[in-house]
Amino acid sequence: MRVTFWGVRGSFPVAHPKVTRIGGNTSCVALRAEGAPLLVIDAGTGFRHLGRQLRESEFAKGKGEGALLLSHTHWDHIQGFMYFEPFFKEGNKFTVVARGDHDRKLKQIFQAQTESPYFSYGLDSFKAELTWKPVMEDEQFSIGPWRISTVRLNHPGVALGYRIEHGGRSFIYMTDTAPYTEQWLEHGFHVRKPEKDPEALDRLRAHGKKLDAFTKGADLLLYDTFFTPEQYGQNPHWGHSTPDEGLRVAREGGVKSFYFFHHHPEAWDDDLEARVKSYAKRFGSSDLRIDVAREGETIEM
Amino acid sequence: MRVKFWGVRGGLAAPGAACADTGGNTSCIEVRTATGALLVLDAGIGLYWLGRSLLAGAYGRGQGEATIFLARTHWDHIQGLPFFVPAFLPGNKIHIHGCGHAGKDLRTILEGQMAESYSPIVSLKNMPSIGNVKDVALGQTLETGGVSVRAHVVNRGKADAPSVAWRIDEDGRSLVYVTDVEYDKGVPDAETIAFAREADLLVHETFFTDDERRKGEGGIILSLPPQARRNHATFGEATELGLRANARKLLCTHHHPDRDDQTIARAIEAERDRVKGRKGTLSVDTAREGFELPV
Questions:
Q1: Domain that includes residue B105, residue range
Q2: Do B122 and A188 lie within an 8 Å CB cutoff?
Q3: Contact A173, A222 (CB under 8 A)
Q4: Are A119 and B126 in contact (CB < 8 Å)?
Q5: Which of A40, A139, A219, B83 is the most exposed place for a label (fewest CB within 10 A)?
Q6: Residue B256 CB contacts under 8 Å (≥ 6 apart), including other chains
Q7: Is B120 in contact with A120 (Cβ distance < 8 A)?
Q8: Taking CA atoms, what residue in B is nearest to A240?
């Protein structure tokens, strides 16, 4: 399979001269394989650029098939949704997958943020055929030849991590998530409140173990490295993680390559590149490759 | 007063080198009155960077006050709000003025923005320093920070949410901000001309080129529905308003995310040609992020 990074930033798109090498668009990753439908994960502002690149493809003729998997529907993961050109071509078919218990509720989330007074056109202007597929954690399903499984991530509102397998290769998308060490994040508004109850802490850590099993033997782990350890210490309730925690998960799972992803808006190119280099020197090996997701880059797996 | 641009894009942010000279953040303008009061026009992503610049001063200590005036509640005008750090630091007072739509008042609309499906903020109540959230009273003049602020609704009667143009007058000097406006037949209307009359600085959106408007093209994506290719003005229409209102200076803003620096520079040159030989003293340029000027 071939993985392309269209957006690698977290929180909001960053138009700043200090991020032009690594990129400022919000989360969007595309997976392609011979004979398989296009698979996209998250629809941040990078999703618009992916759509434009498809102008020369079967999607321009209305013969494209694809699926969009959403980690969750926080704004930085959906803000490119209404700007994806293949949605406006009759004949294209898409499945939109996100955490939920009902397809109508899932559609409603998109409906509500695309109409007046927030936006100038709605889902009814799409010409492609969209199918809404709600999924929950610990599920397995297939999109064409792609085999996909889900895991619960520790994030306000709850996010999903995806493991995608095809042709003997496995790719893991794991953002947004806080480590399962300090605080259980789910619904409602969270303030910093580290868990003190020993039983609750055990349950929290048991969930963390699921991540280790989920990543078992994966070829590539794309992970939420939004925070430095210092930043995380101040904001454990934000639902984001660190390279240290990500690399712990990668080592536990025996992952072959680890990519920094969902970069902090103020992770400048120079600093982030130096940080990745330092982690690679300390923790990288012939068994574990460490790198950073850069916008526009494609990885052959 | 002094004016500084923090976001000059419309629709979506435009990261990357091609737009870096003009800037790629969605709409946000800082206005400092002679008394030092802070007024903000629009809360696009530029608001994050404005907020960051404020933290070294009173706003970092929870002693700051600001009023944000929203042209509209479309996402590109409000998406910086949940990232405006001063609004989370207790003690600051951040007021918001804007326009409700379709039976929803401004607070309800902003609550919808923060809802759990879209944001970890969940509710506006979790931004402790949000002060008054007010629907604008049309035709009224608001006195604040030693200036008078007036609202004028453009796009009235159109199906989409209306947009508010803002005029700030201070001691004989005036700033007028007009965005997300579609003029009938591409000709600025008499009311808007009167509103912008004798402005020292007119900041006007120029989302489309005149060529795109003529050909009916120029949506953010090619095959967008017609309604997505309206609700915006062109470079030529902005200049026309400036000339008819006898404004002194026009700064073009709310640029299309695909409009690179070179294309904007060419469009500005064309507008300067248009002004030649016409009555008045209008100068034309593009707004640039980080650019600051006295009015």
A1: 2-294
A2: yes
A3: yes
A4: no
A5: A139
A6: B9, B10, B11, B207, B208, B218, B220
A7: no
A8: B120
What confidence tens digit (pLDDT) does each residue in A166-195 have?
999 999 999 999 999 999 999 999 999 999
Torsional class of B72: left (φ above 0), alpha (ψ -120 to 50), beta (otherwise)? beta
**Is residue B50 less than 8 Å (CB to CB) from chain A?**
no
Q: How big is the CA angle at B84 (ends A242 and A182), to the nearest 5 degrees? A: 30
Tell the residue number behind the tokens 């030989």, with chain if given: B277
CA distance A288 to chain B (A): 31
Question: For the domain that residue B237 is a member of, what is the CATH number?
Answer: 3.60.15.10
Q: Does A90 touch chain B (CB under 8 A)?
A: no
Q: How many CA atoms lie within 13 A of B253 on its CB side?
A: 32
Residues of B in contact with A119 (CB under 8 A): 74-75
- Quick check: B259 contacting A, CB < 8 Å? no
Which range marks the domain in which residue A263 is found?
2-300
Query: Would you state the torsion angle of the CA atoms of residues A133, B73, B22, B270, taken in this order, to the nearest 10 degrees?
Result: 110
CB proximity under 8 Å: B 261-290 to A: 289
Tell me the pLDDT tens digit for each residue of B94-137.
Answer: 999 999 887 899 999 999 999 999 999 999 999 999 999 999 87
The side-by-side arrangement of strands in the sheet containing B292-294 is: B130-135, B93-98, B65-69, B38-41, B28-32, B2-7, B292-294
Question: Quick one: DSSP state of residue B162?
Answer: P
DSSP three-state, residue B260: coil
Interface check A240 vs B, CB under 8 A: no
CA distance B52 to B33: 20
Instruction: Please choose, from the candidates B192, B33, B24, the residue with its C-alpha nearest in 3D space to the C-alpha of residue A25.
Output: B24
Cβ contacts of B279 within 8 Å, gap of 6 or more:
B243
Q: Pick from B199, B197, B158: which is nearest to B181 by CA?
A: B158
Which structure tokens are listed for A172? 């893991």
Q: What is the mean pLDDT of residues A9-22?
A: 97
* The total number of structural domains that make up chain B: 1
Q: What's the domain count of chain A?
A: 1
Quick check: B12 and A11 CB within 8 A? no
Instruction: Using a CB–CB cutoff of 8 Å, tell me whether A85 touches chain B.
Output: yes
| Residue B91 touches partner A, C-beta closer than 8 Å | no
Read off the pLDDT of residues B27-43 as tens digits, 9 standing for 90 and up. 999 999 999 999 999 99
B82: left (phi over 0), alpha (psi -120 to 50) or beta: alpha
Q: Tell me whether A109 touches chain B (CB under 8 Å).
A: yes
Inter-chain touch B160–A265, beta carbons under 8 Å: no
CB atoms A116 and B224 under 8 Å: no
CATH code for the domain in which residue A296 is found? 3.60.15.10
ipTM score assigned to the predicted complex: 0.95
